[in-house]
């Protein structure tokens, strides 16, 4: 979202004189009580395929100012600006009267006297939406915009609120723009909280890189299988922001699931094919602690025996928190090591990865450090995306509170509530400000979001005696929204947290759903779409409501999210990965989330505490000793839970009936006495 004063660009390709002049112009703009956006130093390619770097485009409330150094730049930049604006028909009045709305001035003639004269000229005043559209045109951000075309029966319905929420003119903020529109000159690590646009920005970045350097071999890798169709679709759409008349060359841009499967080529299986070795499957390795980690290590050994492993110029990894160190090493191994001899010479051989540690759902994997991945002396640039554009503040803070254990009920004051520790730098990078000033060990912090609250309320988590009662309540709520609130099926996602009994839960839920919907003539063509390991790819289907696990939901989003069987995750425990699942489920929501289960008192307590704190995180920042204790206790509980899940898997696949299992457990407990 564009705010009042923004600088987009960098000084990397300017000499010291130009850099100093533009810096002075920015200082001058900041001094004035005006709204402005300035773009500088980002690359453009003219009609002769010559690359240049924009000296400056300044957008004021009443004028667009174009800065140049010589006549050639004046013509090239003016032509590019005109092309940008022409692509948006709604800006026709500007392109038709270009000289009226745009002033072109030599960079070194721009001074305070000139700026004052422009500011005082009140003959023209752009509307707010016009300024957004001008920024959108310059940013080539057309595919960030959204238009919700649903028909609504009343302004009082939830559907009307969603329509308003989902109709907007999309712009990048300065961090996002600078990330996308700059050349990659080193490895990059992108930390972004849920809803900050990590996947979109990575796809936009690879689309721009492919457009600027079409000879490069690029790979984009993700962890969640259900994302593939959506990722390819978005990439092709973002490429159109740069080249409206041609399609991307998908031989040069490979989009992979990390492992792959039957009929679905993955990054791992592709590398195996390239070096002519047989890929290992999950079935081959299901008894390994971490099957994919094992597969990557085996492949790394085979690559050591191979002479030429230079397959990709750059590799982009999304959902990087779910990959072990061996996977990163595998990616580094297959990167090209030399500078590519291509038009507009550019260095290659870089890894660009995006992650959010709070969305890690694997107990056996933690995101490796930069030193572990690259070594101590290899440069890797950090980019932090601290603003969430998807998830409302109220949901985001509540999800963070649960994910970190901020308001976890504790037995005594000596116990630490936190189950996930986030250091002070990361808290700031995540978009929090401490109202109490500096963050110091052993002192209370009061963290608030940098974004504004949306004025929504999280409903109290609902408790039920049985799953049947729970599912009946969920179905009735959904049907009421569909029938009377102008809500559409694609607005809704149902996430079942009880992954061990997904099939059983789904069968019970769908039975209730179809019984209830059969009574609704208007809704009879609506069905459920179970997204699981047998149907991993299509999350959204017309006239279908998605029912899925947290593993398939991750990376996807919906306006309205219903989280079922929350009681399968106890909030009294210190298992940080379990709490990460709640965090991830809640932050799939763009507008509203409901939590359902049996015995939901723990959830109600923590949600109520967040509300009482006015959606702020209040806790004592732990000392070094306390941080060590948090990790030790958390690791123990995660190991215990992992062992329990392994035993549960064996029991579930054994075919034993309930009475036999109970007898077996009884005998085991007797032996332990």
UniProtKB/TrEMBL annotation:
Q: Does the keyword Nucleotide-binding apply?
A: yes
- Give the Helicase/UvrB N-terminal domain ranges: 190-329
Q: What are the GO BP annotations of this UniProt entry? A: recombinational repair
Which controlled-vocabulary keywords does the entry list?
Answer: ATP-binding, Helicase, Hydrolase, Nucleotide-binding
Cited PANTHER family: UVRD / RECB / PCRA DNA HELICASE FAMILY MEMBER (PTHR11070)
Its protein name is DEAD/DEAH box helicase
Molecular function, one GO term: hydrolase activity
Q: Output the superkingdom of the source species.
A: Bacteria
Q: Where is the UvrD-like helicase C-terminal domain?
A: 548-596
Which SUPFAM superfamilies does this one have? P-loop containing nucleoside triphosphate hydrolases
Q: Which organism is it from?
A: Leptotrichia mesophila
């Amino acid at each position: 979202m564009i705010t009042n004063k923004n600088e987009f660009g960098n000084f990397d390709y300017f000499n010291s004189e130009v850099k100093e002049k533009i810096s002075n112009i920015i200082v001058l703009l900041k001094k004035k009580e005006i709204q402005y956006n300035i773009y500088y130093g980002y690359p453009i390619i003219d009609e002769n395929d010559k690359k240049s770097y924009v000296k400056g485009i300044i957008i004021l409330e009443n004028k667009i100012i174009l800065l140049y150094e010589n006549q050639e730049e004046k013509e090239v930049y003016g032509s590019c600006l005109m092309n940008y604006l022409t692509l948006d028909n709604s800006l026709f009045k500007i392109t038709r009267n270009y000289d009226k709305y745009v002033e072109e001035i030599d960079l070194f003639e721009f001074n305070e006297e000139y700026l004052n004269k422009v500011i005082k000229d009140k003959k023209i005043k752009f509307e707010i939406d016009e300024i957004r559209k001008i920024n959108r045109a310059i940013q080539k951000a057309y595919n960030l915009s959204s238009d919700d075309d649903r028909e609504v029966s009343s302004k009082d319905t939830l559907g009307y609120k969603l329509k308003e929420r989902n109709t907007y003119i999309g712009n990048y903020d300065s961090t996002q723009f600078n990330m996308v529109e700059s050349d990659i000159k080193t490895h990059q690590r992108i930390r972004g909280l849920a809803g900050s646009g990590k996947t979109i920005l990575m796809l936009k970045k690879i689309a721009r890189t492919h457009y600027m350097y079409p000879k490069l071999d690029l790979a984009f890798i993700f962890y969640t299988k259900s994302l593939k169709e959506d990722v390819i679709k978005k990439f092709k759409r973002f490429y159109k922001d740069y080249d409206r008349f041609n399609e991307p060359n998908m031989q040069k841009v490979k989009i992979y699931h990390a492992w792959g499967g039957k009929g679905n080529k993955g990054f791992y299986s592709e590398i195996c094919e390239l070096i002519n070795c047989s890929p290992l499957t999950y079935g081959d390795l299901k008894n390994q602690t971490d099957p994919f980690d094992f597969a990557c290590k085996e492949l790394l050994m085979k690559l050591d025996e191979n002479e030429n492993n230079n397959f990709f110029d750059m590799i982009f990894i999304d959902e990087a928190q779910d990959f072990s160190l061996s996977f990163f090493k595998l990616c580094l191994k297959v990167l090209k090591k030399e500078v590519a001899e291509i038009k507009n010479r550019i260095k290659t051989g870089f890894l660009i990865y995006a992650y959010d540690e709070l969305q890690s759902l694997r107990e056996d994997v933690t995101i490796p450090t930069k030193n572990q991945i690259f070594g101590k002396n290899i440069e890797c640039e950090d980019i932090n995306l601290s603003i969430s554009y998807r998830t409302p503040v109220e949901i985001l803070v509540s999800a963070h509170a649960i994910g970190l254990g901020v308001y976890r009920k504790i037995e005594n004051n000596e116990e630490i509530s936190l189950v996930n520790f986030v250091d002070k730098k990361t808290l700031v990078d995540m978009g929090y400000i401490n109202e109490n000033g500096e963050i110091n060990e052993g002192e209370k912090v009061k963290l608030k979001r940098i974004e504004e609250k949306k004025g929504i309320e999280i409903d109290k988590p609902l408790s039920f005696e049985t799953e049947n009662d729970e599912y009946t309540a969920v179905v009735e709520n959904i049907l009421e929204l569909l029938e009377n609130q102008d809500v559409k099926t694609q607005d809704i996602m149902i996430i079942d947290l009880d992954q061990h009994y997904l099939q059983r839960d789904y069968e019970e839920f769908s039975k209730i759903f179809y019984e209830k919907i059969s009574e609704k003539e208007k809704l009879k063509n609506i069905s459920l779409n179970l997204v699981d390991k047998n149907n991993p790819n299509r999350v959204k289907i017309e006239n279908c409501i998605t029912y899925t696990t947290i593993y398939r939901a991750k990376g996807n989003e919906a306006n309205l999210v219903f989280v079922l069987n929350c009681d399968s995750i106890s909030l009294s425990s210190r298992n940080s990965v379990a709490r990460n699942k709640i965090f991830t489920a809640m932050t799939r929501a763009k507008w509203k989330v409901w939590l359902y289960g049996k015995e939901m008192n723990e959830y109600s307590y923590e949600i109520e505490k967040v509300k009482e704190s006015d959606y702020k995180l209040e806790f004592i920042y732990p000392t070094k000793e306390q941080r060590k204790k948090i990790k030790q206790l958390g690791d123990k509980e995660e190991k215990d839970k992992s062992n329990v899940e392994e035993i549960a898997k064996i029991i579930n696949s054994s075919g034993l009936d309930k009475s036999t299992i109970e007898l077996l457990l009884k005998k085991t407990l007797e032996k332990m006495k």
